Amino acid sequence: MIDRIGHPFVDPALLAQALTHRSAGAPHNERLEFLGDALVNLFIAEALYERWPRADEGALTRARAELVRESALAPIARALELGARLTLGPGEMKSGGHRRDSILADAVEALVAAIYLDVGFEACRAAVLPWFEPAMAALPPPHKVGKDAKTRLQEWLQARQKPLPVYELVAESGEDHAKTFRVRCTLAQPVLVSEGEGSSRRSAEQAAAEAALAAIAAF
């Protein structure tokens, strides 16, 4: 556990509190989560400011939002294997709370605060920033960050005065609570057809648009 986190706690009680959900009683991690949220935002803002010296405020703000949102923090929790170490109340245990993105993301923020209280700002930043490095490295260029695939594809076509894409639902399968949608994206210029799957029609359209952008880039 220590090896994955990258920080051996001087005060193990802080680690225990950071991984205790409110459903398990006090002391739980909500106050730590509050502090950790602010620290994560500061660490990421500083890292982006240094990494992108020419990016404007809007691009920096969008990039930070991408990196600190729940869906970005939960994978970090999984990489650190926090789920198996969470202390949850019986109800949350039964409902699979250790796999829920919201609980995992909160645990990451609480853990950041616990490290900060344990050893201070500089050591905390040094321990935490490597958790975010893969996601930061995967960010698109500053002028594209925060824009979804459909928007990027539309802007690419409009900039070249080409017809907009047509999206068509071609398949729908699965039970009502776990449906899978398949969407086709058709371009007239360049002539191109791509497909994508998702748990909603919108996510399938995004996947199809992403596939179209990848195909365009390979031309």
In brief:
By secondary structure, the chain is mainly α. 57% of the residues lie in helices and 11% in strands.
Describe this structure in words.
- By secondary structure, the chain is mainly α.
- 57% of the residues lie in helices and 11% in strands.
- It is built from ten helices and three strands; from the N terminus they run αααααααααβββα.
- It has helices spanning 2-5, 12-18, 30-51, 57-68, 70-79, 90-94, 101-119, 121-137, 149-159, 201-218, and strands at 166-173, 180-187, 192-198.
- The chain has a three-stranded antiparallel beta sheet.
- It is flat, with a radius of gyration of 21 Å.
- 27% of the residues are buried.
- The mean pLDDT is 91.
Regions with pLDDT < 50 over 5+ consecutive residues? none
SS strand fraction: 5-15%
Q: Would you tell me the overall average pLDDT? A: 91
Radius of gyration: 21 Å
Report the end-to-end length measured between terminal Cα atoms: 46 Å
**H and E order:** HHHHHHHHHEEEH
**Residues in helix, %:** 55-70%
- Strand runs, count: 3
Largest sheet strand order: 1-2-3
Total of DSSP H or I helical runs spanning 4+ residues: 10
Largest sheet: number of strands, sense, barrel closure: 3 strands, antiparallel
Secondary-structure-based class equals mainly alpha
Tell me, briefly, the overall form: flat
